[in-house]
Amino acid sequence: MNQNQQLYHHLYQTITSQIFNGTFIHGQDFPSQREICLRYNVGITTVRKVMKLLAEEGYIHTAQGQPSVVAYCTSKETLAAYLAQSRDEIADAYRGLGLLMPILYLEGAKRCNESDLLSFKEILSNMSEQVELQDHYQLANDFFTMILRPLKNKLIIDLELDSENYLHVPYIPLPGIDDPFATTVSRTQTWFKHAISQIEQKQFDDFCVGTSKLYSASRERVDSYLSTLCKYTGENQKKKEEIRWFRIKDHSELYARLAMTIVRRIIAGEFDSQPYLPSIPKLMQAYGVTKNTARRAVNLLNSLGIAQTIDKKGSVITPEGETGFKSELNLAEPTIQERISFFLEALQIVALTARSCTASISFIPDNLGRSMESKLRATLNNRMSPLSFQLLMNAYIQLLPQHSLKNIFRQLDDLLIWGHYLQAIDKSFYPDYSELALSMDTVVTALKNKSIEALPDAFSHAFSLVYQNVCEVLSKSSISSAFNT
């Protein structure tokens, strides 16, 4: 964790990576600021900062009143070698997203109305043999993004747009290598017509199967192409720098991510034998952050009731169930409402996709079930607890075999810290805890018995219950009007 993981830095890395792999070719017009905003789902201030950096580093050439032009120039072999280095990362991302995205498309399709269907048909009508390949891709991307909009979840849109950019693999024309992405518009039109018909007729299972097959076919085509590039270039090395291609935009500030990191360490029991949490100087040294960031992280832990700072001594972990922080919180405050909205959106993604993603798990560590069981016993047993949910989430992320899914869910997990605000809501609004407690026990039993086949149902049921309970609490509280629950 360091201060350079800011949104502009993420966008800069993404665009330079696309310059290095041949998405943007020397001499071609670079997208306008407005196009960059739309393509990467970021604000104009961030785009201007990145465009300035790209120009200063010589990647693009800008002139007043003229379109920016790609200035980076290298050989086709160098572009191919860079692409070849990405083979394992892209294959992993396709496998992970092939589990995640079809379920989200399915849930979005279920919520589509007549107006949405008309929009799909308008996109379809704009496809023709005269459309440039890049515009063809953009229309397809617009179609899938529009399917997700009925979910009214900004994080899902972020994920869709980022995955489109990351998974875009350009064709590098080299001797003896055909273009694997050449496709006819008519083929795309046929697929979309069929998909629209399935949505209209509410054949949602068939629609989900179709999108899953689309991901599988794309993965196989891309991997075959990258394998060919590896043989052509003799490139078998992986990129030295990992590009975190999914970033939850500006929804999670650095100090909040640091606070969540400390929460994870608390849950893991790292501080059980220590009287105090790490001091501000130790946090600065361990995580490479400023004094202000470390202090804000500790203050956040205090405001959420997770820790308590004792003057001239240090910060201690607040005993589970301590609610003295309630009086200091105003849940009607816009910033807090926005944060709870992010928490709810992250939780919705987890609840919707847990069954599909858990189906990919193939290994359970020996002590995971027993460890989770012992820690659950230390949490409250009479109401929904953020720390007990965090245990569930940590186990889930640990078990996922795809790096891409770990990356996605760990970043969503950063936003779940805002769920601690819900402890300030009156206990009488909480539903009966017994069903959720039983679902947690079912997960623990599956883990202890190493029953991999039982995990999809167990995790899915537990996460769904948590989401339903949170929605119920919010609907009963005085702040319910701020949330689409």
What does this structure look like?
β1 (60-63) and β2 (66-70) form a beta hairpin. Strands 1-2 form a two-stranded antiparallel ribbon. A two-stranded antiparallel ribbon has the order 3-4. It is built from 19 helices and 4 strands. The chain is mostly helical and 485 residues long. The protein has 4 domains: 7-70, Orthogonal Bundle (Arc Repressor Mutant, subunit A); 76-233, GntR ligand-binding domain-like (Four Helix Bundle (Hemerythrin (Met), subunit A), Up-down Bundle), CATH 1.20.120; 254-317, Arc Repressor Mutant, subunit A; 329-482, Four Helix Bundle (Hemerythrin (Met), subunit A) (Up-down Bundle).
How many β-strand stretches? Answer: 4
What CATH architecture of the largest domain would you give? Answer: Up-down Bundle
Please indicate the percent range of residues in DSSP E strands (runs of 2 or more). Answer: under 5%
Shape call: globular
Order of helices and strands: HHHEEHHHHHHHHHHEEHHHHHH
Protein structure class: mainly alpha
CATH superfamily of the largest domain: GntR ligand-binding domain-like
CATH fold category name of the largest domain? Four Helix Bundle (Hemerythrin (Met), subunit A)
| Number of H- or I-type helical stretches | 19
Percentage of residues assigned to helices: 55-70%
Biggest beta-sheet profile: 2 strands, antiparallel
**What is the rounded Rg?**
24 Å
Number of domains: 4
Mean pLDDT: 86
Which residue ranges are poorly predicted, with pLDDT under 50 across at least 5 consecutive positions?
1-5, 323-327
Strand arrangement across the biggest beta sheet: 1-2
What's the CATH class label of the largest domain? Mainly Alpha
